[in-house]
Amino acid sequence: MEAIEVRSKERLPATKTVPEWLFRYGAVITIVGVIAYFSVVNEHFFTYSNLSDILRSISIVTFLALGVTFSLVVDGFDVSVGSTTSLATIAAASALVLHRQELLVALLIPLLCGVFVGLLNALLIVKLKLPDLLATLAVMYMVNGIQLTYSKGYSIYEGMPSSVGEQTGRFIPSFKFIGQGELFGVPMPVLLMLAFVLISYLFLEFTTFGRRMYMVGGNPEAANLFGISVSGYRVFAYVVSGLFAALGGILLASRIGTGQVSAGAPLLMDAVASAYIGYALFGEKRPSVVGTLLGSILIGVLLNGLTMMNVPYFAQDIVKGGILVLALAFSFLRKDPAHR
């Protein structure tokens, strides 16, 4: 017994070699460090113009990441956000170019697509009891197949040829303004991103509904005992995830002025990484809207800085992955005091 006590006392100082604040703010320190590094090596990095470009570039990823965050709040995981974004992009472009619709329809159709995908995910997960990852993975493939089948594998753009001649529909100015316009000198995508981040933060942190969502994700048995509909809250989370992915698709279509097939697929992993950086922020190990935004900023800063340094695109993922490991390691390698 005395030997065991001696060994415990010998190991105790080792658990204190890393300061508590480093666990809590490791991800934030990584973000600040990356920004500081690129600011030193490139004088044009820390300018309003470049920072504005970074925020504009991460706006779409942030919408997808918010969707993933809402699914994480209820202890789920939505990997269908990328294909949902692709579907919404094709739907918006189709409404404008192929069917010559106005702004309201061009916004409503993609949002309804997002709701549909969210309800489909909820059906498989809540009703059929399939694991979240497998269910949303299956939906990802189905939705991607739907948008490819509808578009026949072709992007939708102004003046595209068709069986009846050249398409006369166009991306109307009011729709393009969403992704390309500015308000008071600030890009519209950035304003929309910040607005929805703020709304999501206030909703999850300061409303009864939001706090109950965290309870559902943290302890569903306790939530049931309190009379909370666990299934209902999980359905809501996946519908919101689909809506955020659809908003990202609308923003993407309005920004590039075309409906590119599978355009949302490359954004999935960045969105997942952003959400998990938010999960690790401040050492809380819980989904965080503010953390998700900071995660998106970290990824945007990395891509922008590496590009300015002329790092080849095929090598950027190596650096990005290494920095993400560093940002996440402090929180996920941390042991609870009871297990030290």
Put the structure in a nutshell.
With 340 residues, the chain is mostly helical. The protein contains 14 helices and 4 strands.
Q: Which CATH first-tier class would you pick?
A: Mainly Alpha
Q: What distance lies between the first and last C-alpha atoms, to the nearest angstrom?
A: 18 Å
Helical fraction: over 70%
- Please state the structural category: mainly alpha
Q: pLDDT under 50 segments (min length 5)?
A: 1-15
Principal-axis shape equals: globular
| Gross CATH architecture | Orthogonal Bundle
CATH topology: ABC transporter involved in vitamin B12 uptake, BtuC
Radius of gyration: 22 Å
Helix-strand topology string: HHHHHHEEHEEHHHHHHH
Reading side by side through the largest sheet, how are the strands ordered? 1-2
Strands, count: 4
Which whole number gives the mean pLDDT? 87
Q: How many domains is the backbone divided into?
A: 1
Determine the strand fraction and express it as a percent band: under 5%
Number of helices: 14
Q: The biggest beta sheet, please?
A: 2 strands, antiparallel
The multimeric state of the shown protein is single chain
